[in-house]
């Protein structure tokens, strides 16, 4: 039996790494994209290959650069000769209060959350058609309900939601395209990588807890199932947060 191949962007840490571990456990060979997290991605690849030989490989690329997006797509296609699943997880996230926004911030947030997923998908379209594969975009509940002081990020994620729906039509019937809109899954980190814990934030979530990276990973695995009859859908995984104002 041929093992399917998945490319996960931003797979070095946190949610991306958990998606990679979960898909690997489900029998995928995984291609793990990273930009800066070389030590983390190297350790993860070594761990996964120890579990199953030649089942994980890492690829470095700056997704702000269109030439590197195309190079990543080429490397991903030739490594195992096929592509079955693309998970567009890589994302930039930081506040941009109105009145302080620089053009460079606009460009970076739009590129990582919208432009890069589009052009990476375009570069992998034929390989995904051949395998009748699947694309999963990691969106955000704030692509539908804006997050204060994060207008540019929220606008970019709104575009990501429409990207999912538009590509679902463009690529049907050969390739399914879905999205996942997480709520509060993990505590944010400061510049030194330390978690910023805010227990009061849990009061806004009906389930009164963070979701954890594993819930997004399980949602990806569900949407990726080959016999799935779902396309063009944004699956909200937020513990009920979007039910409240």
Description:
This protein is α/β, with parallel strands linked by helices. The chain has a single domain, classed as 3-Layer(aba) Sandwich (Rossmann fold). It is 42% helix and 14% strand. The chain contains six helices and seven strands, in the order βαβαβαβαβαβαβ. A seven-stranded parallel sheet has the order 3-2-1-4-5-6-7, sandwiched between helices. Helix 1 crosses helix 6 and helix 3 runs parallel beside helix 4. The longest helix has 29 residues. The chain is globular. The N and C termini lie far apart (49 Å).
Structural topology:
Blueprint: E1 5-8, H1 14-25, E2 29-34, H2 38-51, E3 56-60, H3 66-80, E4 85-88, H4 103-131, E5 134-138, H5 151-171, E6 176-182, H6 213-224, E7 234-237
Parallel strand pairs: 1-2, 1-4, 2-3, 4-5, 5-6, 6-7
Question: What would the keywords be for this entry?
Answer:
seven-stranded parallel sheet, 7 strands, single chain, alpha/beta, 42% helix, Rossmann fold, 245 residues
Task: Please give a quick description of this structure.
The protein is α/β, with parallel strands linked by helices and 245 residues long.
Q: Write the CATH homologous superfamily.
A: NAD(P)-binding Rossmann-like Domain
Beta-strand share of residues: 5-15%
Structural class: alpha/beta
Low-pLDDT ranges: none
At the first level of CATH, the class is Alpha Beta
Overall average pLDDT: 95
Q: Rounded to an integer, what's the Rg over CA atoms?
A: 17 Å
Find the CATH topology.
Rossmann fold
Largest sheet: 7 strands, parallel
H and E order = EHEHEHEHEHEHE
